[in-house]
Design brief:
The protein is α+β, with helices and mostly antiparallel strands. It has one domain: Orthogonal Bundle (Multidrug-efflux Transporter Regulator, Chain: A, Domain 2). It contains 3 helices and 3 strands, in the order E-H-H-E-E-H. The chain has a 3-stranded antiparallel beta sheet. The radius of gyration is 11 Å and the shape is globular. The N and C termini lie far apart (32 Å).
């Protein structure tokens, strides 16, 4: 069973999968639309739940 809250997707991968620039995801986070976990090196990681939320946001804004 997949833990929907466990952060697994790196920002670059998510951006590529949904067709936006990583800066767009940073903007969404700044605006409070999404949240991310951080690695020790401060790389953003997104959970399955956040990934689905991002896909919905991108779909609705196109």
């Amino acid at each position: 069973m997949i833990d929907e809250k466990k952060p697994v997707y790196m920002i670059g991968i998510v951006a590529k999968l949904v067709g936006v620039h990583p800066q767009t995801l940073r903007f969404y986070e700044k605006e409070g639309l999404i949240t991310s976990a951080r690695t020790e090196g401060q790389t953003r990681l997104y959970s399955e739940r956040e990934f689905r939320k991002i896909r919905k946001i991108v779909y609705l804004t196109k």
